[in-house]
Design brief:
By secondary structure, the protein is of the alpha+beta class. Helix content is 43%, strand content 27%. The chain has a five-stranded antiparallel sheet with strand order 4-3-2-1-5.
């Protein structure tokens, strides 16, 4: 159908398609590509996780890695409420000191 429109309009049809192509390119560079980079970084972080690392899970739970079980690909996260067992893929990011906001004045 689109090829029929382009054939009927000739070179003018190509010029009218440029805004649509520009929108697709903008979507790729501002939305799709950064998301792919973020997923790649998260995947490498999950693979390199170590015992004692302070982390945040994808559900927002903050804690410290207590145990890593490579056999079933799980980790135990020690929180204020105790130890909770998670899949390694549920660990979202590292909670480093630069992201901690102190409430003490």
């Amino acid at each position: 159908m689109y090829s029929l429109i382009f054939l009927q309009q000739g070179a003018g049809g190509l010029m009218s398609a440029l805004p649509f192509l520009a929108i697709i390119i903008v979507f790729y560079f501002f939305m799709i590509r950064p998301q792919m980079n973020r997923q790649k970084k998260e995947k490498t972080f999950q693979a390199e996780i170590k015992k004692g690392t302070k982390v945040v899970t994808s559900s927002g739970i903050h804690g410290k890695i207590a145990e890593i079980n490579a056999a079933d690909n799980t980790v135990s996260v020690e929180t204020g409420a105790g130890k909770i067992k998670f899949e390694r893929s549920a660990i979202s990011m590292e909670l480093s000191n630069k992201y901690i906001v102190s409430t003490k004045k």
